[in-house]
Specification:
The protein is an all-alpha fold. The longest helix has 28 residues.
Length: 198
């Protein structure tokens, strides 16, 4: 049996892994640089070589969360849309699976805004890019489902998604996912190209 080698994790990745856990779990303001340095096991000089200021680390953390979240969301929704008869309501099911995760602490980007960190231009840009990622994907989904005015669909879905996140974060539970599905089906009906007769 060949000997196994433990490849050391690069300092930058260890810093980001630690920041990801602490920033998301405990907040941006509550997490100091000294704690991240201590828990990531890097030298202070090494830390500042990679991230000259806390702002730089926050931006890198948000960019990582942005990529990971939209990749996860697309995969979850696409898998559900592959089932016969699936529609816009599967977004609520994807959200429900997120809320059920043991480490769910709300939306990283909404939390960032709530802490006031989006006042920094570089941070605000990543938050805005996250919103654009979701809108672009939902517009794509709306097009696949044959819905009219995909941009409007994306705006309406964003309102529902944000409401579901806040409810889950405040109450500590999501509740009945049927409510989210009902709201999304309503949006789909409103944007059906051929509306059913009343």
């Amino acid at each position: 049996m060949p000997a196994t080698t433990n490849t050391p994790i690069p300092a930058r990745q260890r810093i980001l892994d630690t920041a990801n856990r602490l920033f998301y779990g405990e907040g941006l303001r509550a997490t100091g640089i000294d704690r991240i340095i201590a828990e990531s096991g890097v030298a202070k000089m090494s830390f500042y070589r990679h991230f000259p200021a806390k702002r730089d680390l926050i931006v890198a953390f948000l960019e990582r969360r942005r990529r990971e979240w939209i990749d996860w969301f697309r995969a979850e929704v696409d898998a559900r849309l592959a089932k016969k008869g699936a529609g816009l309501e599967v977004i609520a099911d994807a959200m429900d699976s997120w809320f059920a995760q043991s480490d769910f602490r709300g939306c990283t980007f909404a939390n960032t805004v709530a802490e006031g960190a989006h006042g920094e231009e570089s941070i605000a840009r990543v938050v805005a890019d996250h919103e654009t990622d979701i809108a672009t994907y939902v517009e794509e989904v709306a097009g696949r489902l044959g819905l009219s005015r995909p941009g409007e669909v994306a705006e309406a879905v964003a309102v529902v998604m944000e409401g579901l996140v806040v409810r889950a974060q405040i109450t500590g539970r999501y509740g009945d996912p049927a409510i989210g599905r009902m709201l999304l089906r309503g949006i789909a009906r409103e944007h059906a190209r051929t509306r059913p007769k009343s």
